[in-house]
Amino acid sequence: MRRRMAQYILGIDEGTTSARAFVIDDGAVVRGFGQAELTQLYPRPGCIEHDPMQILSVQLEVIRAALRDARITPAQLSVAGLTNQRETALVWEKDSGRPVHNAVVWASRQSVDVVQAWVDAGIGGLIEDRTGLIPDALYAASKIRWMLDRIPGAQQRAERGELLAGTVDSWLIWNLTGRRSFVTDYSNASRTMMMNLHTLDWDDELLGHYGIPRRMLAEIRPSDAHFGDLEATFGTPVPIRATLGDQQAGLFGQAGYREGQAKMTFGTAGVLNVNSGAAPRRISGLTPSVAWGIGGRVAYEVEGVAFAMGKTMQWLRDELQLIHAAPDSEWYAGQVASTEGVYLVPAFTGLAAPTWDPHARAAIVGISNTTTRLHIIRAAVESMVYQTRDVLDAARADSSFVFDELRVDGGAVRNDLLCQLQADILGIPVVRPRNTEATIFGVMLAAALSTGMHSGLDDLAAAWAPDRTFEPQMSRDRAEQMYAGWLYARKLTGNWSTMVPAG
Ligand code: ADP
Questions:
Q1: Which of 92, 169, 337, 500 is most buried, with most CB under 10 Å away?
Q2: How far is the CA of 53 from the centre of ligand 1 (A)?
Q3: Gap between the terminal Cα atoms of the chain
């Protein structure tokens, strides 16, 4: 009997801190893996950039490493899927492929004044109405505007059709397909503040207000479209059959296919995504976006972003030098039974959902003369938990959402103390799946689905399996007291940068 040939799927994951690539087989078993760091450029305080050419070269390097690790040739790949850091913006020359500026990373704040000018001009309501997004420098639109303003002659060149602009998915696909496909998908486009959430196309009225010519922008396709072939990269036509922004891919990987299902990712930032079904849903403080367009159907979602989750651990490690590595936080925080009233509000670059205060700044409050670094480290872990409660409570304001558990993923969920405290403060079980690589698996499964390797969403949902469920153990009274303290501490940080001189 002849053995059936295995089919291989390539997953491309262009993240904020690193680029990764996975090869899995059609039984979803990992056969190969590659990862390499990206250089973070900090041109000014509050600004983060990436070198677009490095994004490309590092991504190619890890794809090759994953293929080597899997001991397969590109010709053995059936399909590829791509997921990426969202909202990060690039502008490049159509003819030469040369970027005109570094990629302005999602967390970068240099376009705060651009957004303020739009709000002052009275288009804040229009932006929210069309895109679902609360105007903020997070999204690609203001970053593109900022680059066009900064580079002499760029606006005219953009109008002449000499420059292209897009998110990381468009940049990578354009390059990996030998400049044949200039495309993006609904999930990425919905986080640019340029896509109309109802028509799923760029909104011409908004583009007019922004001064961003439509001809700069990619064609928006469903998330399981054919995005082009990797022939230019591999010499063999491997099709890209799924593209999803990282958070939406995470919701897909956590099997959040049905309305009302939610996941929380604890990465550098924290993001709650709730599947809201076939129509955009407006909930105060949260943003509606497109989850995906798959199988001819569009699913919407509501999102709650917290800028600093694991980021706070990096700050404790790099700036305060209280820990050597992020995972140490669990041991240190576990050495004390409570923070003894200390709260750390990680509003380093302002607060996102649900309060959206770009002028808030971080604070450690409630310090007494018996406070030690253990209390501060524990307060940092607790800050992740409280921010999740903030966004989940905001989502609960829509009474059709009843959360009886929360599925979690991301680098920080290896921290058992964090997961336990999360269950305690929410009062519902927190479920950590066996596969915490929800993002990359999400897009690889979407790619497999689009080529018929899986029969449908139910198959995929059945493949999701829990690793550990953390049941709430704390009394509700205690949990509510702790959370009330957080709300008070958070309020203290509000509007800080406008009240206090920075220098
Ligand atoms: P991203 O995809 O945003 O780069 P990851 O999902 O890889 O992030 O998660 C990395 C983040 O998680 C880092 O900010 C790190 O500080 C934090 N982190 C990693 N392990 C732990 C841990 N055990 N406890 C707390 N935070 C952690």
A1: 169
A2: 25
A3: 76
* Cβ of residue 253 lying under 6 Å from some atom of ligand 1: no
Indicate the pLDDT class of residue 233, thresholds 50, 70 and 90: confident
CB 497 less than 6 A from any atom of ligand 1: no
Q: Which residue CA neighbors atom 13 of ligand 1 most closely?
A: 310
Residue minimizing CA distance to atom 8 of ligand 1: 267
3-state helix, strand, coil in the chain (%, to 5): 35, 25, 40
pTM reported for the whole predicted model: 0.91
Give CA–CA dist 500/103, Å, rounded: 31
> Where is average pLDDT lowest: 31-40, 69-78, 451-460, 483-492?
451-460
Ligand 1 in contact with 335 (CB < 6 A)? no
CA of 2 to the centre of ligand 1 (A): 45
pLDDT band at 1 (very low <50, low <70, confident <90, very high): very low
DSSP state of 197: T
Contacting residues for 276 by C-beta, under 8 A, at least 6 apart: 259, 288, 291, 299, 300, 301, 302
The domain 255-503: what is its CATH number?
3.30.420.40
Residue nearest to atom 18 of ligand 1 (CA): 412
Could you read off the pLDDT of 314-353 as tens digits, one per residue? 999 999 999 999 999 999 999 999 999 999 999 998 899 9
Output the CA–CA distances (angstroms, integers) from residue 280 to 7, 197, 291, in the order listed. 36, 8, 10
Could you tell me the residue ranges of all domains in the chain? 8-238, 255-503
CA 350 to chain centroid: 17
Give the amino acid at 497.
S
Q: Quick one: average pLDDT of 388-395?
A: 96
Please state the CATH superfamily assignment of the domain spanning residues 8-238 in this structure.
Answer: ATPase, nucleotide binding domain (3.30.420.40)
For ligand 1, whether the C-beta of 326 sits within 6 Å is: yes
Q: Is the CB of 270 under 6 A from ligand 1?
A: no
Pocket test for ligand 1, best of 17, 413, 435, 443 (most atoms within 8 A of CB): 17
The pLDDT assigned to 465 comes to: 85
The verdict on the CB of residue 415 being under 6 Å from ligand 1 is: yes
Is the pLDDT at 276 greater than 60? The verdict is yes
